[in-house]
Design brief:
- Strand 5, helix 5 and strand 6 form a beta-alpha-beta unit.
- The chain is α/β, with parallel strands linked by helices and 305 residues long.
- It is 37% helix and 16% strand.
- The protein starts with a helix and ends in a 10-residue tail after the last helix.
- The chain has an 8-stranded mixed β-sheet with strand order 1-2-4-3-5-6-7-8, sandwiched between helices.
Length: 305
């Protein structure tokens, strides 16, 4: 990793922003503009479909496809983001593994606060199972808030009596709505993307008055992870929610779950999106793809959706 690459990304993320809280429309537009800069591999084809009762984007490799399905949950603090803003991450996993992916367009706050997002991702997973897809050939992946959904959707699926997927990959997951991790303070000066005030601004839209001290909102400190599939958690040292990953990894180990905590030095939140710009982004995605292929069963064939 070169110092120049890190400095380029840090400067991009530290661009001046308007003072004070931004409106939902401004937040969403700014995120679309940022993520529109990311590299999306050309070796994919996409189409819009429906999974459960929500739109989803099906992403498939144009060559070297393999049986297996990634159910992808995009980031955006539960307030912004879409399958399109996460396409660089989804497409890079698809091209590296050969698996197809469904990226779920779950409902967003403040129009649809907690637990709407989890209801939608669980519905998408249930719909995939209902098509005949075996759970051993399905993996969950996501970034930021979507990384948190990989865990909370598993919790909801287990509570609903559904079989769990083969594995989980979470990029810089948000796993603690109480914001009680030590890194919220120790990383405040080096995180180029977030401030506590900004996180609380969007977080309050999702919570809508709910107590954050419950497993579906703060699994890093409250979730029972017994019976969970193998988990890969990837994060950077320059992010305020770093301890969301470290604490979930500790809970997973205590529950007897296979877990890999993959921390990269001097990189920001969801650094994996910066493929082609940051060497560590490509390397991290290579590791994530290897993890997925090692844990996913290729039992059976795809059922069209």
């Amino acid at each position: 990793m070169s110092r120049e690459q890190r400095e380029t990304i840090d400067a991009l993320l530290r661009r001046p922003r308007p003072a004070g809280p931004r409106s939902v429309e401004e937040i969403r537009a700014g995120f679309r503009e940022l993520m529109g800069r990311m590299h999306v591999p050309s070796e994919i084809r996409t189409r819009t479909t429906t999974l459960g009762d929500r739109p989803a984007v099906l992403v498939e490799p144009t060559e070297n496809s393999s049986p297996g399905t990634i159910l992808y949950f995009h980031g955006g603090g539960f307030v912004y983001g879409s399958p399109q803003t996460a396409m660089s991450l989804t497409a890079n996993l698809v091209t590296r593994t050969g698996f197809r992916a469904f990226s779920v367009d779950y409902r967003l706050a403040p129009e649809h606060p907690f637990p709407a997002a989890i209801q939608d991702t669980l519905s998408a997973y249930r719909a995939l199972l209902d098509t005949g897809e075996h759970p051993s050939s399905i993996v969950f992946a996501g970034d930021s808030a979507g990384g948190g959904l990989t865990v909370t959707t598993c919790l909801a699926a287990r509570d609903a009596g559904l079989p769990l997927p083969a594995a989980i990959v979470a990029f810089s997951p948000g796993l603690d709505s109480t914001r009680s991790g030590e890194s919220m303070m120790t990383k405040a000066e080096v995180d180029p993307l977030f401030t506590r005030e900004a996180m609380e601004h969007t977080g309050s839209m999702y919570l809508a008055g709910q107590d954050p001290r419950q497993p579906l909102l703060s699994p890093a400190i409250l979730a029972d992870l017994n019976g969970f599939p193998p988990i890969l958690l990837q994060a950077g040292t320059n992010e305020m929610i770093l301890d969301d990953s470290t604490r979930l990894a500790a809970r997973a180990r205590a529950a007897g779950v296979d877990v890999i905590l993959d921390i990269t030095a001097d990189v920001p939140h969801v650094f994996q999106a910066f493929t082609g710009i940051l060497d560590e982004a490509d390397q991290a995605l290579d590791r994530a793809a290897l993890f997925l292929t090692q844990h996913l069963s290729t039992r059976g064939t795809h059922v069209p959706v």
